[in-house]
């Protein structure tokens, strides 16, 4: 039995995979990281960068709070700046129905530990002077903020190189097999062996798990975003609405990013996606309704990116059943926010230690399991 | 204006205007969209002021533009002027913004006649107010019959240098200098092709004689290598390329251009196959003999598909319009052949002249490497050559990474001014471009969203808690 | 037909005369105003460059919204705000 090339192979260089690779390498593992393109160019580089509790599922709030703390301290543990700004967050209600949703959700999230409270329209306007005075109420969270998602690739690339991770960008993995003491990772130019393997392919964890005979359906969302040109300050918080279909914030350099999960069109198998005009109009209307002075600005870019979701919209983070040494990490709802912490917990498991907080094993989602 | 048509034509210059007329003449319901306030495009740009209107009547380009506008008025073409196309979906749905708001037009066929954009080789100081593109001079002279500046220098390459200088003289402005990258030998090489168009050759000779009589110096094999001044231009440094000798010329206004490149955002957005072609402005869209692209129902004509100049654009436009009518079933094979024959014959002749002119305007790719480190490449975001090199050292290997690492191309021009130059620095032998994406123009929020009620917004049901 | 009677714009609070049919950019350039705005990053002065709608250097606030001056015809009483022009570091 020969020694494997690596202790750990990570397939997928988004923020989840890159974080696992980084933490594992820092613990002394020999790590190789594959991506079919450049690092963090899919969901991790194209999402809105929002680091919010108000769009996070209640069950994931404890993870997101830990991760938020990590993001704020990114220069310390990542070693590089991803433009993180911590600020207040407001979720708005414009109708009676939205007031009801907002109250329920604020209660559930605050029970899960998020510092969220309901505020009057007048108090909301004090916190965010640019807000539409016609709001009925808002929920305020003191732990909110955003990163500059497009800097993720640059920051992680530097950190991974410094940590000694072997980077294989633009190297699609074509298959995976068991090999002696570990796994054989196949690519066009040959392959490598590794004792353990992490599947971190975002929406592509479904085809990746098929390599190991596991059938885990992953729903593909195609989130559409827009950004304005640089402008004088119009807002200072992260804004959303009760239904969760808006995320809005202005970066220090003046651009306003408009997100919230309006859907574009696309297809995981071909890897292509595009924005739709209807979503662009709807999303922009919602943004202007929240911050009226945005009406005078111009949108300079609109883009789309994939988001992965499991059947129960909870994460797929844990061991691959029946395949010792194989792990999966993905479909972490509000994944950008929680990624570094989820990756920390999974890395602990990979290293054979008990994770700080429970993982989200995928057994529950596989056919023949009675848990659903 | 929103609604369904047989064919949509984007761009109402020589190519698009003729395409619309040809298709309409064959019985198609045609929608013609242009960004400008009136058809004509750049070469046949509509005069806007009373003075410019009077001048246009005496000018060949002005008269041809006037004739096109009259024919379009008389035809049953639905014209949407002052409208910016910002998205085109396959099938086709074209989104455009006008003063009246956002319009969605639909048609099974789409003809792209989007024209060209000027390229300028960046140099330190090219962002100083008072530095303009060379085509900017023609634009403002045609529409307003004025030319900003008192001490002007005209620089770059190609036949436009002489044309702009002569028009400046007509306005009573004597250029301080014409700075031409080409030498006498380059012009001589073009002469046989120009001779095939005797009227053009005669006009060129007349123009040269006038410049000589006015004592306008022509600095050959020379280029502007820097522009001085902070909030206003105060002078330019000109280098004689073979000797490296530099001279300073006091100037408050510089007009400079290094050729044209297709404005092919929509072609690329719709996935039309393209080929690298330096003579055609860097890249051309592949078309068959009838101007059909690789995308079914999509046609391309004029400089937007590959730079040829105005005259070939006219004939390509006619052929594209007729081909759309043929494919729509409005013309049978014989009628199509008969109607397109004259355009094909004249196109072949026009192309000989076009190639010679395009050769003089080929962008000096190799000189990108000479750009000093502090030279701004991306004007919108003030990204300098040294920033690009730092990003490359951090691992940026493609245009999207370069964009993310530096913000190059993230400003309102959407990479139009910097994209090709940055690609040339990143990989001189590569064929790198930004991923084509809508909106292909900055979208005015005000025009996009119009007036609305909150209840009109189709907010889907909330995500799971 | 365009009337040849001068019309007036308001540029940063000051009246500016121009000719009907002109673009906003043309009208300002005719007054010798070359610097329209400052680049948002480095804050260097900028003015119109391409005059055909591509470069966006002439985008200023016209009647309260950002528009390209080179593509916008003048209209009587139009209110223009140059965006921090001359605010170089």
What does this structure look like?
The complex is a heterotrimer of chains A (372), B (465) and C (89). Chain A is an alpha/beta fold and 372 residues long. Chain A is 28% helix and 30% strand. Chain A folds into two domains: 6-44 and 151-217 and 312-365, FAD/NAD(P)-binding domain, CATH 3.50.50; 87-143 and 219-309, D-Amino Acid Oxidase, Chain A, domain 2. Chain A has helices at residues 15-26, 43-46, 61-72, 74-77, 96-111, 121-127, 152-163, 205-210, 277-290, 335-350, and strands at residues 6-11, 31-34, 85-93, 116-120, 137-146, 166-168, 173-179, 182-187, 190-199, 219-228, 238-241, 247-250, 256-263, 265-267, 272-274, 298-309, 316-319, 326-330. In chain A, the strands form three sheets. In chain A, strands 1, 2, 6, 7, 8, 9, 17 and 18 form an eight-stranded mixed beta sheet that branches. Chain A has an eight-stranded mixed beta sheet with strand order 4-5-3-11-12-13-10-16, sandwiched between helices. A two-stranded antiparallel ribbon of chain A has the order 14-15. Chain A starts with 5 loop residues before the first strand and ends in a 22-residue tail after the last helix. Chain B has 465 residues and is of the alpha/beta class. In chain B, 36% of the residues lie in helices and 21% in strands. Chain B is built from 14 helices and 24 strands. In chain B, the strands form seven sheets. A five-stranded parallel beta sheet of chain B has the order 4-3-2-8-21, covered by helices on one side. In chain B, β19 (274-277) and β20 (282-285) form a beta hairpin. In chain B, α4 runs parallel beside α5 (160-170), α9 runs antiparallel to α10 and α11 (385-393) crosses α12. The longest helix of chain B has 28 residues, at 333-360. The two termini of chain B are 43 Å apart. In chain B, 57% of the residues are buried. Chain C is mainly beta. Chain C contains one helix and seven strands. The radius of gyration of chain C is 13 Å and the shape is globular. Chains in contact: A-B, A-C, B-C. At the A-B interface, α5, α7, α9 and β16 of A face α12, β24 and α14 of B.
